[in-house]
């Protein structure tokens, strides 16, 4: 079985903002699409979540 890795991203969209968020991952690339569903500007935050440490 090939070795795999896992990367987690946190995508934060303010509650009052209306947006559709989708994530696609293929060929080693991640595409994050945020589409506002209203005309007001939105602020989002996208960041990689550090790997969790496993208890021994």
Automatic annotation (TrEMBL):
It comes from Streptomyces viridochromogenes Tue57. This is Uncharacterized protein.
